[in-house]
Amino acid sequence: MNNGLLLFFGIVVAMVSSWFGFVHSPQLQFGTLVPEVDEASGATFPSPRSGAAIRGLDIYRQNGCASCHTQQVRQESYDFTVEISDYGDNTDQVAELLATYSSNYEAGSELPALPFNVVEGVDLGTANRIVKKISATEAAVMAQIVPHGPDIERGWGIRRTVGADYLLDKPVMLGNQRIGPDLANIGNRNPDANWHYVHLFQPRKAVEDSVMPSYPFLFDRIPVNGKPDVKALRLKGELVTDAEGRQIIPRAAAKDLVAYLLSLRLDTTLFEAPGLVVASDEESEATDVEDEAASQ
Amino acid sequence: MSDSSNQDLNEMEPKASQAPVPVLFFVIFVVLVYLSTMYLHNNAGGFNAKVYEPYGSYDVVKAVQPKGNADPRFEKGRVAYVTYCAPCHQNSGKGAPGQFPPLAGSDWVNTEGPNRIIRLIMNGLGGPITVSGVAWNPPAQMPPWKDVITDDEDMACLITYIRGESEWGNSGGPVTAEQVKAVRDEVSSRPIPWTEGELFETSEQ
Q1: What ipTM was reported for this prediction?
Q2: What is the pTM of this model?
Q3: What is the distance of C-alpha B37 from the center of its chain?
Q4: Are A29 and B50 an interchain contact pair (Cβ–Cβ within 8 Å)?
Q5: What SS3 class is residue B142?
Q6: Least buried of A80, A152, B16, B169, by fewest C-beta within 10 Å?
Q7: Option in B47, B68, B75 nearest A142 (CB)
Q8: CA A222 to CA B204: how far, in whole Å?
């Protein structure tokens, strides 16, 4: 060892510089993030979880859910939609401008039903120019950002995930393999707690080609004595039973885990991740769930 | 094989030779550092926690925010409302049944001129009051706000919000700081809250 000192300092420099790169600089970047409070409504983001959902995070972790499920939504690009929500009084001018800019409107025809998307998939400059032209007629018009990416197109979230989304997760369950689908928005995609119970007890009952292992130890199996328990699992109205005909009742751990799953929602926009909030009505949400249950 | 040659080998110490580091190594190293720095400069968004792909920089994130037609005075008023008024009158403006009358759709709020509502907020109100045809007898009097919201513009924004919140079905016009100041000068010496009858004696404008 002729150059022992040189070797020692070489190693120290390599370790220290990588510490600065991998530990210190992310800490500088994200270490000061705190939950944001919306002054007007008083709501915080991320919204605090219920006690059951906090315990559910531990169940999620204990059972290795993160080995097969990610909680991060990717976004590749974005473009803009110009939406008109009120034509105002100068309808002739608005019609003229719509004929110029919109391919869905023919000059001379009646003004389309509101809200109407004048153009879709344009860049910011174009969108702002059109908004400026149309708003000069005193119509209510606005440019709305539309995020794009494979996950967003699948309905796994309305925008990409960002650091602020994970502020209340200890530890963060990012995951890095998608053997199962991403769960960042599962609370919205399937808000049916009963479906989740059945899916955890016997995934093949809920989703025909699922490769997910079953988690029977999260449930009690009790012989049916007369009438089945009200808490027993049912799928589409029929009692779910095991091979011996016993009814299935969720244990506390299963309830916590499902409470956690339902708390995973990616439906709000943030300053750092703007997106398109689509007003949803109860009816379409319910049909989505059925479609999903049928297709999964 | 003789013993002596073996001994020579054993005595020979391994030693690293001192060859100079090739110049090319430094050149490549410097070029790599330069390229990575440029990459970070162009793609790291200034290491700002609010900047993510595909938004290149903070300015881009700011530029792509959805821009509504929101009036800043109205938004300021909303914040003041949530702070001072919502504890009793609720975020929904509907008040509390049997205790605090509603502001949403109230005929006291949606007047042509803001004179009475400014007076009412300045000095508070005691005793029974009829709101939109419903008789109320609140258990507590409304406190005076003239010493809490001392800035005329803040007060004007607050009343503009209450009168203009379309989600409540209100449609009163905006209020200016001058209108607030005129009333404030007049009522600043009044120590007691209004009663309904006294307010009716003042002009609606």
Answers
A1: 0.76
A2: 0.66
A3: 37
A4: no
A5: strand
A6: B16
A7: B68
A8: 72
